[in-house]
Write a structure and sequence with these properties.
alpha/beta, globular, 363 residues, single chain, OB fold (Dihydrolipoamide Acetyltransferase, E2P), rRNA-binding, Ribonucleotide Reductase Protein R1, domain 1, 21% strand, five-stranded mixed beta barrel, 3 domains
Length: 363
């Protein structure tokens, strides 16, 4: 397993592996996701992988697809450049969002077993602190350590001011203004890229994620495209999720840009952590169930009047709260539907009695 250590394998994963008898199988890590096929790194090098029939059947019962960053149990096929994926080791962290366009609550996994998440936003007209609050909720819920990267600092006259603004909405979260063109901030960012540590990047389309990968890797591994001049929005460059081994020994996951981030759940308490300042002020409200809208004795509304709380931040606080509550309701409705189907499948089929059989017998 020594060859896997550069890809994050350690004693924790070793203990996880030894929980079950896997003598005929080997471990590997998903490094690229192409839909039904995966690129997997093993002790023998890279290989193509596909799910076993049992895994595909389990998807019908709610199991999840393998994701980039997953450690998986593999069966190597002798004489072939492919393997069969038989299982996924328990994830330590999982970055996910609500699947776009889904009528019911459906999780879309972006990457698994990530240690640090770079939240990237560019310092052009697309700069948006409210969007960053949403990304922070996702990060905290995923169990990863967030770091904010303000890319394209060469396009901004006051990157230090923007960095200070981000620090206000993300207390304790490191913020770095970076520029690949000016080679600005590289030393600070590479400090996170240590041997065996997995770092992922996420952000809106065209924010500079692929450029950052190339910059940190000193290569042109990822293609890049410019932004549209009319609205400062980017074009999609990365079309699939992929994990790279960097010269520093760290691992980096680049992901396709998001037009919109729909939050999936709040199991990790990310929403409360992101808006901890508003929550703390809310403890001074007259009523314990205060919604901070128009109630008498609301400490949050009083803080809004004095300027202690920014109005747009409070609006995002309410919006994301409603969104997460709605996702919970969608999940509950979805589960009730599944339960009804299960009950219907278990109920015996009752044959309808004929008219003559239903009549009383003649004496």
């Amino acid at each position: 397993m020594n060859e896997l250590m550069h890809y994050g394998w350690n004693t924790t994963w070793e203990l996880e592996w030894e929980k079950e008898e896997r003598s005929t199988h080997t471990a590997g890590r998903i490094i690229a996701d192409f839909g039904q096929k995966y690129r997997v790194y093993t002790a023998s090098g890279e290989i193509w992988g596909e799910m076993s029939g049992k895994m595909k059947h389990a998807l019908l019962n709610g199991s999840t697809y393998p994701a980039v960053g997953d450690w998986v149990e593999l069966q190597l096929l002798e004489g072939e450049d492919r393997c069969i994926i038989h299982g996924i080791l328990d994830r330590k962290t999982c970055i996910s969002r609500q699947k776009a366009g889904a009528k019911s609550a459906q999780e879309q996994i972006i990457a698994a077993n990530v240690d640090i998440l770079f939240l990237v936003t560019s310092l052009n007209d697309d700069y948006n602190p409210r969007r960053m609050e949403r990304y922070l909720i996702m990060a905290w819920n995923s169990g990863v350590t967030p770091v904010i990267l303000l890319s394209k600092a060469d396009l901004c006259d006051d990157p230090e001011v923007k960095a200070a603004e981000m620090e206000l909405i993300a207390p304790g979260v490191p913020v770095h203004a970076v520029s690949a063109i000016e080679n600005r901030g590289k030393e600070e960012v590479t400090g996170y890229l240590k041997d065996g540590v997995t770092v992922a990047l996420t952000g809106s389309s065209g924010c500079g994620k692929s450029t950052i990968v190339n910059w940190l890797a000193d290569s042109t591994e990822q293609r890049t495209q410019g932004i549209r001049e009319d609205d400062s929005r980017g074009r999609h460059t990365t079309t699939h999720r992929e994990l790279f081994l960097l010269p520093s020994g760290g691992l980096m996951v680049d992901t396709p840009g998001m037009r919109e981030l729909q939050l999936y759940d709040d199991d990790g308490g990310g929403w409360e952590q992101v808006f901890s300042d508003i929550e703390a002020i809310g403890e001074g409200c007259r009523f314990a169930d205060c919604r901070h809208e128009n109630e008498a004795g609301c400490a949050v509304l009083a803080a809004l009047e004095t300027g202690e709380i920014d109005e747009k931040r409070l609006q995002n606080y309410r919006k994301t709260q409603r969104e997460l509550q709605f996702q919970v309701k969608k999940e509950e409705r979805s589960q009730r539907k599944v339960n009804r189907k299960d009950r219907s499948a278990k109920e015996p089929v009752r044959r309808k009695s004929s008219f003559w059989n239903s009549r009383p017998h003649d004496e």
